[in-house]
Structure formats: C-alpha cells, structure tokens
C-alpha cells in the first residue's frame, strides 16, 4: 500500500510540474530538481560537477560510488538521459545517479546540446566527448571498464556509442556493456514527423539506427521495456534483440509488466526500486558478464 501511495504522489507531482511548463519553465526546472532529490535513494557522497568540453552544455555530474564498495572497483556507468533530443538537464536525474552510486558504481551523467541548437551530429559529438572524458580521466587511469546506459533518447545515444565504433573516440575502447531503458533502437528518425528535423543532417537513416551497427563484436546488452509504453514501441527492443541474437551477442531482453515509458525510469527511485527489480537485474547482469578489477 505504501508503494502505491508513493507512486501516486510521484505521478501527481509529475502532472503538476508539466502544468508549469507553458507558464513558467524556471519553476518547472526547480520542481523537477526537487522531485528528483525527494525520490532519490539514500546517498551520502558529494556530487561533483565537472567540465568535459569547452561549451556551456559540456558539463557532467559525477557520483562517486558508495565507499563500502570502492575496493571492488566496479565498472563506471555513463548514463545518457532522454527527453526526445529536445529537453533535459542532468540535475533532473539525481535519483538515477544516487541509486546506481549507492549500489557501488561510479556514475557519470552528462548534459549535451539539444535541438534546435544542434541536430544529430551535434549531440552525438557531445556524447563522444563525454565518453572520451570518462575513458581518459577515469577508465584508462584505473584500468576499469565503462558501461553505457540510457533512457529513451538517451538509450538511443548510448546504443550508438555501444555498437557504432565511429561514434566513439579513436583512443577509447568499446564499452564493456550496454544497458538500455525504453530505447528507440530501430525506428527511422528521418521518417517520423516529430524527429525528421532533428535528424535532417544524417545522410542515411541507418547511420542513426543502433540496430544497424550490431555485429559479433558488440558488447553484452541488457534492455528493459514496459509493456504499456505508448511513446517508444516495444518492437524497437524486439528488433534489437533479434539482431543481437543473429550475431551471437550475449543479451537479455526484459519486458516489465504494467509499466509505461516513464515508470521504467522511476524504477531507480526510492519508492519503486525494490518493487520493480531493475537495479537488481542490472547488478546481476554486470556480475555475470563483466569481471571486476582487483
């Protein structure tokens, strides 16, 4: 009963925040940050804001792992948030960063430029810069692996980083694993009315479709999708899973019951984390496929 009440409180808060959008965006942003902190998993470390490039949006939040887990040297999680490639702030995802960090992972959540300031090539360049920073400043220095993760549009970006070698810095190795939540991995972004302007600078649609880049060198992949997601359709995950299976890539495709596009993200929140089991599944997947550095 308590979980249901928490979820209803979050839902009402989200609806209220959305009502602010047209009237006063600064109030919306402050409310989203407050809601993110209210839903966050207990976490006692200091979040560090760091520049990863020269532009205003080239900022990332670094969540150090729970000290009790530091000796295990778990992989670094680089999380790209969603927002239809049009909206988003790293501060809105505090509850994601704290949940992953409390599980013992160093977590990085970068901002990146959005449409209409940039199109596809612009935000992918930012994703590349962020990956390069994590690789050079954290992974290579400590002999650790990187896991790319994301939700919705962020899962699309993370999947391109995982499967498309040309999107990563030349000096950086491929990610050790990919974890995606409700990602549009297979759709044609040049065909959909809501995305055709954003992806107008892509010469061919396949170059922006993660499923196109899957091969037998692709990293182990864990995908989650809600059975009630009306924003990104389930067939995107099904097509990606089929491509991974065709190339004998280790993967798991999880369909969450009674879950929509946004509830899947709130699986990292304090009230829903235990019930939905997404964090536990991520932990199990990483334990199975990625060796810890001793």
TrEMBL record:
GO MF, one example: hydrolase activity
InterPro entries noted in UniProt: AB_hydrolase_fold (IPR029058), BD-FAE-like_dom (IPR049492), GDXG_lipolytic_enzyme (IPR050300)
Domain BD-FAE-like: 67-166
Keywords: Hydrolase
Name of the protein described by the UniProt record: Acetyl esterase/lipase
Species in which this protein is naturally found: Maritalea mobilis
Lineage: Bacteria, Pseudomonadati, Pseudomonadota, Alphaproteobacteria, Hyphomicrobiales
């Amino acid at each position: 009963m308590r979980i249901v009440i928490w979820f209803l409180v979050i839902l009402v808060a989200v609806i209220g925040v959305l009502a602010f959008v047209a009237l006063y965006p600064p109030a919306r942003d402050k409310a989203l940050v407050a809601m993110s902190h209210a839903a966050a998993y207990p976490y006692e470390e200091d979040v560090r804001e760091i520049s990863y490039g020269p532009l205003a949006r080239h900022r990332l939040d670094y969540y150090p792992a729970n000290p009790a887990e530091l000796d295990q040297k778990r992989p670094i999680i680089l999380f790209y948030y969603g927002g239809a490639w049009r909206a988003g702030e790293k501060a809105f995802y505090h509850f994601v960063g704290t949940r992953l960090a409390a599980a013992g992972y160093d977590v990085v959540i970068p901002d990146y430029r959005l449409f209409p300031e940039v199109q596809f090539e612009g935000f992918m360049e930012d994703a590349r810069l962020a990956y390069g920073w994590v690789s050079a400043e954290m992974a290579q220095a400590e002999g650790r692996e990187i896991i790319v993760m994301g939700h919705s549009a962020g899962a699309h970006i993370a999947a391109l980083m995982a499967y498309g070698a040309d999107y990563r810095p030349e000096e950086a190795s491929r990610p050790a694993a990919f974890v995606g939540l409700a990602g549009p991995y297979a759709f044609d972004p040049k065909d959909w009315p809501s995305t055709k302007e954003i992806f107008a600078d892509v010469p061919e649609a396949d170059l922006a479709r993660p499923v196109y880049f899957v091969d037998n060198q692709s990293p182990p992949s864990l995908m989650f999708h809600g059975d009630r997601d009306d924003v990104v359709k389930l067939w995107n995950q099904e097509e990606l899973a089929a491509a991974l299976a065709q190339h004998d890539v280790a993967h798991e495709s999880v369909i969450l019951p009674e879950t929509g596009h946004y509830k899947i993200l709130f699986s990292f929140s304090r009230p829903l984390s235990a019930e939905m089991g997404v964090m536990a599944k991520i932990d199990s997947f990483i334990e199975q496929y990625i060796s810890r550095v001793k």
